[in-house]
Predict the structure.
Amino acid sequence: MNPGFSPGFRCLREQALCLDFDAFLDRAEAFGLTEKEAARIWNARNHRRALRACPHNRLEELSGAGLDCVWLLEGACLLSMPRCEGVCPHFER
């Protein structure tokens, strides 16, 4: 019902970006950066690791380094889910 909670369906790009961000926050805190300085540095970074994390190689669906992939829905990758076999109790038109 909520595929975003299933580890097998989570977007690998989103997970990689979260790991990068957590590590960045630790370093920013260690260097005593202000929130404004840290935000400027983070926003200027090239997040290639997160982009490479996609096993479906759907980089053409991206516009920039964001997570605006057409296959991302509530934290889950639609391409990683099993194919729907037809009408079930959860079917919605």
About this structure: Strands lie at 72-73, 76-77.
